[in-house]
Design goal:
By secondary structure, this protein is α/β, with parallel strands linked by helices. It has one domain: Rossmann fold. It contains seven helices and seven strands, in the order βαβαβαβαβαβααβ. It has a seven-stranded parallel β-sheet, with helices on both faces. Strand 2, helix 2 and strand 3 form a beta-alpha-beta unit. Helix 3 runs parallel beside helix 4. It is globular, with a radius of gyration of 17 Å. The structure holds nicotinamide-adenine-dinucleotide (NAD). Nicotinamide-adenine-dinucleotide (NAD) binds next to helix 1. The site of nicotinamide-adenine-dinucleotide (NAD) has 30 residues, from helix 1.
């Protein structure tokens, strides 16, 4: 299947985990991708491995100009922007709401929520002239129900679900679809602390807390993102696709994201590890 032949997609956080799996999927189906990420070494290595249908672009999604520049680069390098994946993320501020600082709140929201708003904004501007495009943002089961993540993460991911609906209402008129994917616990560097930084142990931990008894891997989430990006989803907009083995149907929430869980002291690349 070559669903992305001739297409050009920007993937924020594309150097690792779910973003990396998404980039690989786009390229394997004939598309081109800009890997827009903070992690230069990983991003450049992935672009070098995948060849001339990808390019790495260093970006901090908390900076509006960086997001706009990644989109401009995509258009210069590969032609009109057809897809945008707002995926970059951290765990961010952790701990009791009574102790969370406004600074930690602002930092987390800038990366998990504001950056998604700005990604939709600039992607829509770029896609408008073609009257066509698909935008997919990463929410989480923490964006569907409470108790699945730290407070600010939960608020930010609910915001992703909200802006997905709101932007879909406006942008449908100009041919742009806006959707989100809400993963449950997935084996990536973000969750690796669950298994003492051993991906195999992390997979076993996540499998043990999954209603299906298997670990969710980045490809399981990327398949949902690719579906929503592709013309297979041509009539789907404003939707959040939950990929969680049924956790948010009311199954017992996995224990690892309780407010004082050890993972939250370590996870995330730029999140605050402070509970002060
Ligand atoms: N892994 C999970 O269990 C899980 C569950 C639900 C939702 N998600 C969401 O999926 C998305 C991807 O997470 P992942 O699990 O693949 O994590 P990951 O840590 O493997 O990848 C995240 C990527 O985002 C990049 N990034 C972080 N801050 C950035 C910034 N300011 N600017 C640019 N890039 C930045 C990192 O460098 C990294 O490459 C995130 O939005 C996350 O919240 C993950």
């Amino acid at each position: 299947m070559r669903r992305f032949e001739g297409q050009c997609v920007v993937v924020t956080g594309g150097a690792s985990g779910i973003g990396e799996a998404t980039v690989r999927g786009i390229v394997s189906e004939g598309g081109s991708a800009v890997i827009a990420d903070l992690q230069e070494d990983r991003g450049r290595a992935l672009a070098a491995e995948l060849g001339n249908t990808t390019v790495f672009h260093p970006i901090d999604v908390s900076c509006e100009d960086d997001i706009a520049a990644a989109i401009t680069l995509a258009q210069t390098q590969f032609g009109p922007l057809t897809g945008m994946v707002n995926n970059a993320g951290i765990v961010g501020a952790i701990g009791s709401i009574m102790e969370t600082s406004a600074e930690d709140f602002d930092h987390t929201m800038a990366i998990l929520s504001r950056a998604v708003f700005l990604g939709i904004k600039h992607a829509a501007r770029a896609m408008k002239p073609q009257g066509r495009g698909a935008i997919v943002s990463l929410a989480s089961t923490a964006g569907i129900v409470g108790g699945q993540g730290p407070h600010v993460y939960t608020m930010a991911k609910h915001g992703v679900v909200g802006i997905t609906k709101s932007a879909a209402c406006e942008l449908a008129r100009i041919g742009i679809r806006v959707n989100a994917v809400a993963p449950g616990g997935t084996v990536t560097p973000m969750t690796n602390a669950l298994g003492d930084n051993n991906p195999q142990s992390t997979a076993e931990f996540i499998a043990a807390s999954s209603p299906l008894g298997i670990a969710c891997m980045p490809d399981d989430i990327a398949r949902g993102i690719l579906y929503l990006l592709s013309d297979d989803a041509r009539y789907t907009s404003g939707h959040t696709l939950v990929i969680d083995a049924g956790v948010t149907t009311g199954a017992e929430p996995p224990p690892f994201f309780s407010q004082d869980a050890d993972i939250l002291l370590h996870a995330g690349l730029r999140g605050s590890a402070s509970t002060e």
